[in-house]
Amino acid sequence: MNLAERAKTGGRERRAYPVQLEVRGKAGALVEITGYATVYEQTYEMWDMFGSYDEVVREGAGTKTLSENPQTQLLLNHGGLSMAYTHAGTLRLAEEPQGLHLAADVNTARGDIRDMVLAIEDGNVDEMSFAFRVTRQQWSPDYMQRDIIEYSLHRGDVSVVNFGANPATSVALRGLDLDRMGDDQIRALYERLGRRLAPPAPPAPVAPETQRRNPLSLFEAEAAVLG
């Protein structure tokens, strides 16, 4: 098993964090939502095809991407219509020692936004997530800790998530490139797939006396198999 495969940066990734979201009233139907889309310098556990490893987002990891005015949107559960947008000035992102801070002006005249704001105010939603790409990282010599030094938010999002997974229990899904995998990795993957895809055990044989009590014609047997 070659743990160095972990160092291959993949595509877009997501992390969710329990945070303190705040809602402040503004003029008309507008309200401001503030919170942190990610936190820095807090180690959490991640999983990949090789098992568990530690990960930490380092302070300042978003400085470069924010200096480039990334196109980033506020979403609900990473989907649906944009609720605020950096390009429109309704979403403002800032790099702070604690993490990536956001302030978003949202219009509660929209039903989906009104529902989200009510869920936050009721305390039924208390997590945020962000979708990003890693542009610079550092792994420990044994590939058991990953430091995210720099990430990109361009064409990514920050999301209020109603039941997001905490990083301590989330799973990082990476694309499998069989041409780059070693023989031992492919063999282990093949064995795991074989166990998962193995056909179910055949049913226990029926006693002859039971067969005599419940005779089935060929037609009835076919009908039973076809449901």
Give me a quick take on this structure.
With 227 residues, the chain is α+β, with helices and mostly antiparallel strands. 20% of the residues lie in helices and 39% in strands. The strands form 2 sheets. Strands 1, 4, 5, 6, 7, 10 and 11 form a 7-stranded mixed sheet that branches.
Strand content: 35-45%
Order of helices and strands: EEEEEHEEEEHEEHHH
| SS elements, strand count | 11
Shape, principal axes of CA atoms: globular
Number of helices: 5
Terminal CA distance reads 45 Å
Low-confidence stretches: 168-178
What is the share of helical residues? Answer: 10-25%
Please give the largest β-sheet.
Answer: 7 strands, mixed
Mean pLDDT across every amino acid position: 81
Protein architecture, described:
By secondary structure, the chain is an alpha+beta fold. Helix content is 20%, strand content 39%. The chain is built from 5 helices and 11 strands. The protein has helices at residues 63-67, 111-121, 183-197, 208-213, 218-226, and strands at 13-18, 22-25, 30-39, 44-48, 51-57, 72-76, 79-85, 91-95, 99-107, 127-139, 145-161. Strands 1, 4, 5, 6, 7, 10 and 11 form a 7-stranded mixed sheet that branches. It has a 4-stranded antiparallel sheet with strand order 2-3-9-8, with helices on one face. A hairpin with a 2-residue loop joins strand 4 and strand 5. The protein starts with 12 loop residues before the first strand and ends with a helix. Mean pLDDT is 81; it is low at 168-178.
